[in-house]
Design a protein that fits this description.
Radius of gyration: 16 Å
Number of strands: 0
Largest sheet: none
Structural class: mainly alpha
Number of helices: 7
């Protein structure tokens, strides 16, 4: 894993140019484009969460979200508690090609999230339809 400069934007790191956010067709697209134009170190938790849930800005966004998940597997990123982790668990395996060490930690984070108080992890469990079925991912 190569370190990257967090003062750079996703545009700068990838070499891809995002469109003009002022002409975006939807508010979500506008938010994503604005996030691409911001230095990574200036992205809010909500912006990071939105990029993860939309599966955008990988692998760089993974480096931003991972410490947050290690600190709190139910990190919400502006969504329900655990939605960010739930989204990552559902990612296509190719997402992890550049960050296999993160993929190796997914099950541990999943188990930590499940081990939290049910009042804290209901949304997470619900995202996997586990409220009435136990704890295994099928």
């Amino acid at each position: 894993m190569q370190p990257f400069d967090p003062t750079k934007t996703l545009e700068g790191l990838t070499g891809l140019r995002a469109d003009d956010p002022d002409v975006a067709k939807t508010p979500l697209i506008e938010w994503i484009i604005r996030s691409w134009k911001k230095p990574l170190c200036d992205l809010s938790d909500d912006e990071i969460g939105r990029l993860v849930v939309q599966r955008d800005g990988f692998p760089y966004v993974l480096d931003l979200v991972w410490p947050k998940l290690e600190n709190d597997p139910l990190f919400d990123g502006g969504y329900y508690p655990g939605d960010v982790l739930s989204s990552l668990i559902r990612c296509d395996p190719q997402v992890w090609a550049a960050r296999p060490n993160y993929q190796a930690r997914l099950d541990t984070l999943y188990q930590q999230a499940l081990g939290r108080n049910p009042e804290e992890n209901d949304a997470f469990r619900d995202s996997f339809d586990l409220l009435n079925r136990g704890t295994a991912i099928s």
